[in-house]
Amino acid sequence: QVLLMVGLPGSGKTQWAQKHSQENREKRYNILGTEAVLHQLRTRGPDVEELDAKSRDLLTQQAAQCLSKLVQIAPRSKRNFILDQCNVYNSGQRRKLLAFKGFSRKVVVIVPTEEDWKKRLELRKEAEGEDVPESVMLEMKANYSLPEKNDYLDEVVYGELGKEEAQPLVSRYKEEARKLLPPSEKRANRRNNRNKRNRQNRNRGQGYVGGQRRGYDNRVYGQQQYWGQPGNRGVS
């Protein structure tokens, strides 16, 4: 079985995934998310110094590479998985689920009330010391797509608000974001320039991460990777 989490940053995806995994221990879920990978990459011990900003960015990029590879490898294993990323783009949902042919494929949509979402974002900002870049959030809101059951998706589960309540909220987010974003032509030019820089970085051996900016649907926004999966804070 594979459960694909869908939701904006700070919506509550990681909390739901961890709770579901704990409540269904017999399924031995493998949670593939940023925090799980970062946990394995961090040095542990009583005398470990706090990482500086540059080291944290490097570690985050390494985690992005690892997670991207793990998601590619996962469909070859007979295990139960939870893909704990934002996955708000329909294209990303489709691509990942198609790879898990032969699995029971479900999507878990997490849409809290706007008030709860704002509170969770504030809690995460306090915990991480940084906020989700506005341009990233607007792009995701503008392209947020609630999935429907189809030939590669067996079931859609709503973890907080039901579909009837979530749909108008997501539609409003999309409309508001599209009004604030620059014209699509300029956005397309920015994406083309960004892709060109990524290709140049690959040629220079700088290690294109190829994953999500903090788990955001295999899109890279700028040079710094931005991950949106907190750990045990319960506010993802």
UniProtKB/TrEMBL annotation:
**Which regions are flagged for Basic and acidic residues bias?**
175-187
Q: Which residues form a coiled coil?
A: none
Cellular compartments per GO CC: nucleus
Q: Which domain of life is it from?
A: Eukaryota
Query: Species name for this entry?
Result: Lepidothrix coronata
Which gene name belongs to this protein? LOC108491905
Q: Name one GO molecular function term.
A: RNA binding
Signal sequence residues: none
Where is composition skewed (Basic residues) in this entry? 188-202
A family per Pfam: AAA_33
Taxonomy-wise, where does this protein's organism fall, top ranks first?
Answer: Eukaryota, Metazoa, Chordata, Craniata, Vertebrata
Name this protein carries in UniProt: Heterogeneous nuclear ribonucleoprotein U-like protein 2
Task: Give the region (Disordered) as residue ranges.
Answer: 175-236
What biological processes does GO assign it? alternative mRNA splicing, via spliceosome
Transmembrane domains' residue ranges: none
